[in-house]
C-alpha cells in the first residue's frame, strides 16, 4: 500500500508538471545536486544494499523516496538474510548491510581480516510476530515455554493436541526464517535459549512473503517473522499473543515493542555501512537521507522508530565519519 500510494502521488505530480511545461521534446537535466557539496553536479552512481528481510521494507521505502529525489542514483535493495548480507559486506560486494541483529564477533573479525571498516546505525525497533492461520479458532496465546517446546531440537511436539489436549489432533505445520536470517538467530536465542538451536523439520525461507503464503495456506500452520509482514497481511494471518511467564498475554504493537512489554521478542534493527563506500558522494547522501527519513518511513512500513537519543547518536556517528552535518530533507 505504501508503494502504491507513493506512486499514485508521484504520477499525479508528473501530470501537473506535464500540463505546466507542455510537450516539449527538449528535456532538461535533473536539478538535484550531490548532497549539498556545492559543486552543483548532478548526483549519480550506484548504492548496493542487502541483508535482512526484516529491515528490507525500511530500506526499500528509503530507496524509493531517495530515487525520486536523486533519479540518477541506482539503488538496489536485496534480501538474503543478515548473515548473507554480512558475507557480502566483508567480501567488499556491498555498501550497506541490513541487519536484524547486532554483528557477531566472528563477522567483525572477518571484516577486520579483509580490511573492511564499517559504521553501525540503529534505525528502528521490531517485534517478532508469532502467527497462525485465520481459521485457527482454538489458540490465541502461547507461552514462551510452549514456544520453546515447539521449536527446540528434538521437540516432542507434533500435533496441536500435544500442547493442549483440547486442541485438534492435527499436525502443526511450521514455517520460519532460514538459518542465514538474523530473525532466526534472535528467535532461537530468545525462545530456545541458544542461538541457532532449532528443530530442522520446518519450512524455511529467507523471503518472509513466502512464509506468509505458507501460513495462510494451511489451517494448522504456525510461523514467526518480523511484525511488519503481519501488519501488511492482517487479512491472511492471525496474530498470537505471547506470555513471557507472568500470566499476561501480550501482542506486538508500536507501544508494546517500544516499552518492551512484548518480551522477549522485541529487538532493534540496524544498518552497517562500509566506511570506504561512505566516501562516495552517492552513498554518503543516501545514508544522510536514510538517517533523516528513518523515523517517518519506519512508521509507514510498520516498525517503531528509535528514540531521540539513539537518533542523535546516529547523527553524531555520521558527522564524525563524514565531516558533514545532516540537513533536514
What do these coordinates show?
The longest helix is centred in the N-terminal third of the chain and has 20 residues. The N terminus is likely disordered. The chain is 40% helix and 19% strand. Strands 1, 2, 3, 4, 6, 7, 8, 9 and 12 form a nine-stranded mixed sheet that branches. Helix 2 crosses helix 11. It has twelve helices and twelve strands. It folds into two domains: 137 residues, 3-Layer(aba) Sandwich (D-Maltodextrin-Binding Protein, domain 2); 140 residues, 3-Layer(aba) Sandwich (D-Maltodextrin-Binding Protein, domain 2), CATH 3.40.190. Helix 2 links the parallel strand 1 and strand 2. The protein is an alpha/beta fold and 329 residues long.
Going by CATH, the architecture of the largest domain would be 3-Layer(aba) Sandwich
Terminal CA distance: 23 Å
Radius of gyration: 22 Å
**In the CATH hierarchy, what is the class of the largest domain?**
Alpha Beta
> Which structural class do you get from the secondary structure elements?
alpha/beta
CATH structural fold name of the largest domain: D-Maltodextrin-Binding Protein, domain 2
**CATH evolutionary superfamily of the largest domain:** Periplasmic binding protein-like II
Helical content band: 25-40%
Strand content: 15-25%
Helical run tally: 12
- Element pattern in H and E: HEHEHEHEEHEHEHEHEEEHEHHH
Biggest sheet features: 9 strands, mixed
Number of strands: 12
Instruction: Give the mean pLDDT.
Output: 88
Question: How are the elements arranged and paired?
Answer:
Layout: H1 2-21, E1 45-51, H2 56-69, E2 73-77, H3 81-90, E3 96-99, H4 105-113, E4 118-132, E5 141-143, H5 144-151, E6 173-177, H6 182-192, E7 203-205, H7 208-216, E8 221-226, H8 227-231, E9 238-239, E10 241-243, E11 249-250, H9 254-258, E12 266-274, H10 275-278, H11 281-300, H12 308-322
Parallel strand pairs: 1-2, 1-3, 5-10, 6-7, 6-8
Antiparallel strand pairs: 3-12, 4-8, 4-9, 4-12, 10-11
Helix pairs in contact: 2-11, 3-4, 11-12
